[in-house]
Amino acid sequence: MRGWFVVGAERKANLIRLTMGGFFDSATIQQLRAELVEAVASLSCPPNDHVTLCDIRQMDIQSQERVGDFSRLVGSEDLRSRKLAFVTAKSLARLQAKRLTSREGVDFFTDIDTALAWLTS
After folding, report:
1. Is 99 left (phi over 0), alpha (psi -120 to 50) or beta?
2. Which domain holds residue 9?
3. What is the pLDDT at residue 35?
4. Domain total for the chain?
5. On the chain, which terminus has fewer CB atoms closer than 10 Å, C or N?
6. How far apart are CA 105 and CA 11, in angstroms?
7. What per-residue string of b and e applies to 77-115 under the rule 16 or more CB within 10 Å gives b?
8. Which of 82, 89, 79, 88 minimizes the C-alpha distance to 103?
9. Residue 93 sits in a domain of what CATH number?
């Protein structure tokens, strides 16, 4: 399935909600980046003080090239969040997501409620 995403911004919580699924190509990742830049700019907090909830339960295993693209996206200074919670279902997708970044403030969950509780704690 072709890659898809939904980006949402919750100003009061300084929260970016990102849901992704399918298999991504380079153009879709570039579009994702553009929408994330816009969403982060809409928040009321200082740069990099927001939190991000990333639901990848419907995401397919990605090519190594796309994993590299996602790694650069997650680590980019203009989008980097204070805390990043990944919600995963498939163990292979979870392992692949864990390779994206080793920075502090990133954790992995199997349900959204637990991830949100961690983000807001």
Report:
1. alpha
2. 4-120
3. 97
4. 1
5. C
6. 20
7. eebbbebbbbbbeeeebbebbeebbeeeebebbeeeeeb
8. 82
9. 3.30.750.24
